[in-house]
Amino acid sequence: MEDQRELCPECGFDSTRWRVRDAITHMEALGWWWRNALAGLDQAEVGRRPAPAVWSALEYGVHSAFTTAVLRRSIERVLAGDVWNATDRINPHRSHASPDDNPLVVGLDQLLDDLEREGRHISAVAHAARADRWGRRAERAGRPPVGADSILFHAVHDASHHQMDVGRGLSALGLGAARSCGGRNGRVAQINTSAGGVPKSPVDEVNIEYDGLAGDRQADEKHHGRPFQAVCLWSTDAVAELNAAGHHVFAGSVGENFTVDGLDWTSLRPGTRLRVGSSLLELSFPAVPCQKQAQWFTDRDYKRLAYENNPRWTRWYAWVREPGSVATSDEVLIV
Fold it and tell me: Is the pTM of this model over 0.70?
């Protein structure tokens, strides 16, 4: 019996869009996301609730670390063929908070270590599993059997949904990227699509769905096309600075969908929410440079685009949290 498709109208999660290797990549970076999303914030700030009945970033982090650990153990048992009666799944988009609760207080450094450890553990378990084990199913009382892959995808849903919750919670508290960049907004300088590969060519307007821009394709689906890579953004400042250094980049040359003007690029962080046209995007991870981009650099050193080398020149991937349409010169608003 096939597992039930897992859909979420709030965050756009659709389990049918995920592959096991995509889930491994996402969960392996769980600790990185949290460290960078909360960078520059102190214990008191991340412990504040945006509303009495909504968890603080710290509380969401505790939930995410614990849930990842529980689901990792469930995956291990199903992969091993153990008899297992699963309980109902944790609802991934409830705050579980009450106005009468006292906000949970935990050490931020310890929490970040816990998230990093649990993300790596569940990824390691999934990575080590033999391909034929993913077809195994576990019985659940009164419900259809569930596979290890479905549990893994649910772990991704739980983690990424709460990342969205944290991003909008920090935004509501005025603690996100908008504070870091002084509230500066930008505009879409160019929209870029292609049938695969680089460079991408400009278009005047485009519709965006949860899986990306209409008419845009990736030639390499092994490293591209994951749900958290639905849209790629780059800065006109990076284009200008690299050209001034003698390189030959241009809008669309490194595979970005939106070349954006006016944003303080170094202020961006995972969880930053951007209103682009009528769509809502949420930054996920910096894009890893590709050797296909070497052609635009006089020394062929495409790794200068890596986040760890120069955040000013990196490209950012984003989830699509609300589909919509975008036209050239539309505003890019930090929510």
Answer: yes
